[in-house]
Amino acid sequence: MDMVIPLFDDFEPLDAIGPYEILAYVPGANVRFVTAEPGLVRDVLGSLPVQVPTWYGDVERCDVLLVPGGGSFLRMQNDPEFLDWVRRMHTGTRFTTSVCTGSLVLGAAGLLDGLTATTHWDAAAELESYGATYTPERVVRQGRVITSAGVSSGIDMAVRLAALLTDDLTAQAIQLYTEYDPQPPFDTGSLAKAPAEVRERARTLG
Length: 206
Hints:
Layout: E1 2-6, H1 13-23, E2 30-34, E3 39-41, E4 50-52, E5 64-67, H2 72-77, H3 80-92, E6 95-99, H4 102-108, E7 116-117, H5 124-128, E8 133-134, E9 139-142, E10 145-148, H6 153-165, H7 168-177, H8 196-202
C-alpha cells in the first residue's frame, strides 16, 4: 500500500508529520516523501530540515496521495508540471487527500470543482475560487477525495483514512498506540469558538 506525501520548501510540519505518524502504522503501508528537487526541504518555521531523496516525477502511481499545506502550497499550485502529476496520481489513487492549505493545491489541479471541501479557516475564500463549497468541518470526504481543515486536523483525517484502508478496529488500535486523546487547555480551536481578540492574534501568526 503506497502512500505519498509531497514536501516542498515551507511546508507546515504537523500537516505532514501528524498524518505520517498515523499512516505509518497501517499494516502493509509504505509511506514516503517526495519533492521537486531531491535534497534538503525546509519547513515553514525554519527549524525542521527534512532530507527527501525522491523526485515526485519518479512516482507513477500511489494508493494514497496526501498533500500538506503551509507556505509550500504557493509553490505547488504555481507549478504546472507538479499539478499535472497530481492529476495523474489522482486517476489511480484509492484516496486523494489534503491537510490545511494543501486543499488549494487539489483545487488548482481541478480536483475540487463542484465538491464540498475544507481547509484552514483563513483560506476559505481561495478554496471557493476553485469551484469548491467551503465547510468548516474538520474532515470532509467526497468519494475518493478527503480534505481536512487546518494543521492538527490532519491527524483526525489520518485516523479516519486508516479505518477506510483497513477497518475500525485497526484504526482504533493505532489511535490508542499513538495515545491520540486530545485534551487541549483552551476551547479556542475553531473560529466558531474563539473570541474576537483570539482570532485577531491568530491572524498575526501566519
